[in-house]
C-alpha cells in the first residue's frame, strides 16, 4: 500500500480525541492535580513540591525552596475573580475560552495560575487546529510544571501528526525527537503520579489510561514516520488497548505497519476496525482490507 500520511489526513482526525482531552481539562482532572503551582498568599512562603516518583528520605530534612528572583506578586481579589470567570467558561466554546485565557495571561503575566491556563490552552488550541500555538502553550506550561504527563502526551502525540511535506528533513527529525522525548517522559511519570483529591479512583484510572493511550500512539507514529514499522506495532497496539475512544488513526497505522511487515491477517483485522469507525479514513481502511487479503494470497506471511 502506498501511504502518504500528511497533515490534512491526520489533522482532520484530531477531533476523535478532543472529547477525552476536554474531560481531562475539567476542574476534576489533571489541571488541578497535586504538584501544580498554587496561589501564594501574602506573607506565605511557597512550599517546595516533591518530585513524583522520587523516593523521599525520611531522615533527610526537606530542601529549602529555591529563591525566585522574579517571584510573582500575591493574588488579589481582581485576579481571583478573573480566574474564576475563566474556569466557568464552557469548554464547548473553545475559541472563546482560548481568548479568555490569552487575555488573562496578558493581564496577569506573573500569575500563579499560569500553569492552569496554559494547560487549558494546549487542549483549546488543538481543538481549533492551531498546532503551533498548542506547542508553544505546552512548552510554556512545562517550563513551569515540567512533570505534567497530560500536556506531555498531548503535545507529544500531536507533533508527529502535524507534519507537512514542506518541512525540511532536519525540522522533521527535530519534531520527531521532541515528540519521542515528551511521550516517553509522560509514560515514565504516570505510574507514580499522585491522584488529585477531587477525583475518584475510577476517574483517575480512566484519565491515566487516556493519557497513556495518547503517549503510546505518539510513539507508534514516531516510529512509523521513521520507517520503523515493526517497532511501531506494539506501541500502537497498546494505545488501541487503552483508548476508551477508539482512534481510527491508530488502527489505520497498525494496518499499514502489519502489511509492511507481512503480517497480513493482523493488517486485515486492524483495517477492519478502522473501517468500522466513522471518520475520513473509512474508505482508505476498506481498501486496506481488500489489499491485505489479496497480498495474503500472493505473498508469504511473516511468522508471528
Low-pLDDT stretches are: 6-13, 19-29, 32-70
SSE string, helices as H and strands as E = HHHHHHHHHHHHH
* Largest sheet, strands/sense/barrel: none
Bin the helical content.
Answer: 55-70%
Overall mean pLDDT stands at: 82
Can you characterise this structure?
The chain is mostly helical and 304 residues long. 59% of the residues lie in helices and 0% in strands. It contains 13 helices and no strands. It has helices at 7-11, 18-24, 77-88, 94-107, 114-127, 131-144, 149-158, 169-189, 201-225, 229-242, 248-260, 264-275, 282-298. Helix 7 (149-158) runs antiparallel to helix 8 (169-189). The longest helix has 25 residues, at 201-225. The radius of gyration is 21 Å and the shape is elongated. The two termini are 21 Å apart.
Give a topology summary:
Blueprint: H1 7-11, H2 18-24, H3 77-88, H4 94-107, H5 114-127, H6 131-144, H7 149-158, H8 169-189, H9 201-225, H10 229-242, H11 248-260, H12 264-275, H13 282-298
Helix pairs in contact: 4-5, 5-6, 5-7, 6-7, 7-8, 7-9, 8-9, 9-10, 10-11, 11-12, 11-13, 12-13
What brief labels describe this structure?
13 helices; 304 residues
Entry summary:
This protein has 304 residues and is an all-alpha fold. The protein contains 13 helices and no strands.
Amino acid at each position: 500500500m502506498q501511504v502518504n500520511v500528511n497533515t490534512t489526513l491526520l489533522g482532520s482526525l484530531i477531533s476523535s480525541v478532543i472529547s477525552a482531552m476536554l474531560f481531562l481539562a475539567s476542574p476534576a482532572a489533571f489541571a488541578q492535580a497535586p504538584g501544580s503551582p498554587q496561589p501564594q498568599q501574602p506573607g506565605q512562603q511557597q512550599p517546595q513540591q516533591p518530585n513524583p516518583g522520587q523516593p523521599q528520605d525520611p531522615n533527610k530534612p526537606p530542601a529549602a525552596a529555591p529563591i525566585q528572583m522574579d517571584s510573582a506578586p500575591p493574588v488579589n481579589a481582581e485576579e481571583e475573580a478573573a480566574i474564576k470567570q475563566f474556569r466557568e467558561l464552557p469548554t464547548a466554546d473553545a475559541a472563546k475560552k482560548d481568548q479568555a485565557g490569552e487575555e488573562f495571561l496578558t493581564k496577569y503575566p506573573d500569575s500563579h495560575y499560569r500553569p492552569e491556563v496554559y494547560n487549558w490552552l494546549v487542549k483549546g488550541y488543538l481543538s481549533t487546529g492551531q498546532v503551533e500555538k498548542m506547542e508553544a502553550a505546552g512548552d510554556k506550561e512545562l517550563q513551569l510544571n515540567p512533570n505534567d504527563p497530560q500536556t506531555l502526551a498531548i503535545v507529544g502525540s500531536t507533533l508527529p501528526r502535524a507534519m507537512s511535506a514542506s518541512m525540511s528533513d532536519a525540522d522533521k527529525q527535530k519534531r520527531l525527537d521532541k515528540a519521542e522525548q515528551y511521550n516517553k517522559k509522560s509514560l515514565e511519570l504516570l505510574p507514580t503520579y499522585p491522584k488529585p483529591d477531587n477525583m475518584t479512583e475510577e476517574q483517575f484510572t480512566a484519565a491515566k489510561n487516556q493519557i497513556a493511550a495518547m503517549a503510546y500512539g505518539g510513539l507508534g507514529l514516531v516510529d512509523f514516520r521513521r520507517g520503523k514499522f515493526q517497532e511501531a506495532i506494539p506501541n500502537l497496539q497498546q494505545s488501541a488497548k487503552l483508548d476508551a475512544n477508539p482512534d481510527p488513526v491508530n488502527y489505520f497505522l497498525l494496518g499499514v505497519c502489519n502489511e509492511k511487515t507481512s503480517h497480513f491477517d493482523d493488517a486485515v483485522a486492524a483495517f477492519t476496525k478502522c473501517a468500522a469507525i466513522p471518520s475520513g479514513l473509512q474508505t482508505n481502511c476498506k481498501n486496506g482490507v481488500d489489499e491485505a487479503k489479496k497480498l495474503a494470497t500472493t505473498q508469504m506471511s511473516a511468522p508471528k
